[in-house]
């Protein structure tokens, strides 16, 4: 896990969580998708998502390290984290 250089913000990943763990994290059935590419994101609220397909390589702002996650992972991104 990589940290934001301005704080102790970390992306957390649960690999292959149970359905109970996904629901307990507050993930709902709302679907969202995007085309492959590079994006600049800033999270104004904590966000959790369960990836159905694909892969993500996220670089937290101010860090040279990346976090990689993909299909089957439950990911939590803390409020205030910026990444690309």
From TrEMBL:
* Pfam families named in the record: Cupin_3
Q: Which domain of life is it from?
A: Eukaryota
Which segments constitute the (S)-ureidoglycine aminohydrolase cupin domain?
Answer: 31-83
Q: What InterPro entries does the record tag this protein with?
A: RmlC-like_jellyroll, RmlC_Cupin_sf, UGlyAH_Cupin_dom
- Do you know which SUPFAM superfamilies this protein is assigned to? RmlC-like cupins
Q: Tell me the protein's name.
A: (S)-ureidoglycine aminohydrolase cupin domain-containing protein
Name the species this protein comes from. Answer: Glycine soja
Q: What is the lineage of its organism?
A: Eukaryota, Viridiplantae, Streptophyta, Embryophyta, Tracheophyta
């Amino acid at each position: 896990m990589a940290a934001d250089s301005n704080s102790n913000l970390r992306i957390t990943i649960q690999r292959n969580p149970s359905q109970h763990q996904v629901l307990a994290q507050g993930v709902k059935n709302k679907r969202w998708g995007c085309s492959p590419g590079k994006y600049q994101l800033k999270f104004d609220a904590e966000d959790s998502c369960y990836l159905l397909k694909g892969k993500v390589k996220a670089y937290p702002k101010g860090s040279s390290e990346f976090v990689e996650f993909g299909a089957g992972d439950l990911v939590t991104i803390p409020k205030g984290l910026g990444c690309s």
